[in-house]
Specification:
Length: 241
């Protein structure tokens, strides 16, 4: 009876290893992520502490150990897919078994397991963390409202650009070489004087723009009419005051 009680107390002490990791971690592709792992043992940590990290791919396949720490020495992976991409950043004397994974890729998605043993405390359960690697920056998630907004915004933007382009083309026709030859009466009294021809002057840039915009707004087909009239217009002679 007493022997059983002693054995249960001893086994309880040596089975007190507690290992913990975050349930989920996320990182952008190409970035560095720290796979955190901490442990607590009823026995003081020594050089006998051993740490193993294993990985199970998200798309299936067997789990395999890729990192080992023992005797205060870290043994990084020497084979693909983690070769040259794992660094030891933990401290076994402080209960830290964390490692860093460099230059993450989509193939790194999966479950990472941290197992720690501190003889004679070797019966603690390992801890697991799920790593999600997103393809650059934050993953884009479109809601129904966002999709609807895009479907409405794109056609309206294209329509606006087409109208602006049409207006600019018409303005260029009006305000280019042809627009420089436009004439308006300098004075209504002189223009209406019987027996005298109207006096003309060159339009200013401001007047050209206003004239083009007014013509465009009044008749959307003015540009075709303008080109047609330019081809068939007869030259107008200027008169002197």
């Amino acid at each position: 009876m007493i022997l059983c009680l002693v054995l249960s107390l001893v086994l309880g002490q040596v089975s007190a290893m507690q290992v913990s990791t975050p349930g989920d971690q996320q990182v952008s592709m190409g970035q560095t992520v720290t796979l955190q792992c901490s442990f607590h043992s009823s026995i003081s940590s020594s050089s006998a502490v051993s740490i193993d990290w294993s990985f199970r791919p998200q798309d299936g396949g067997p789990s395999f150990t890729f990192f080992h720490f023992s005797g205060s020495v870290a043994y990084p992976p020497s084979q693909a897919p983690f070769r040259g991409r794992v660094q030891w950043v933990g401290n076994s004397h402080r209960g830290d078994a964390s490692i860093q994974l460099l230059n993450t890729s989509l193939s790194d998605n999966g479950t990472y397991t941290c197992a720690v043993k501190n003889p004679p405390d070797v019966h603690g359960a390992p801890a697991h963390t799920q790593l999600t690697v997103t393809p650059g920056g934050r993953a884009l998630r479109f809601s129904d409202v966002g999709v609807l907004f895009i479907l409405v915004l794109i056609p309206s933007s294209l329509s606006t650009l087409m109208h602006l382009g049409r207006l600019c083309c018409l303005g260029n026709r009006c305000c280019s070489g042809g627009g420089a030859n436009q004439r308006v009466p300098r004075s209504p009294s002189i223009a209406l004087t019987e027996g005298k021809g109207p006096v003309y002057r060159n339009l200013t840039t401001r007047e050209k723009i206003v004239l083009c915009c007014n013509m465009y707004l009044q008749d959307p087909d003015y540009d075709e009419y303008y080109l047609h009239s330019k081809l068939h217009a007869e030259p107008v002679a200027e008169s002197q005051c």
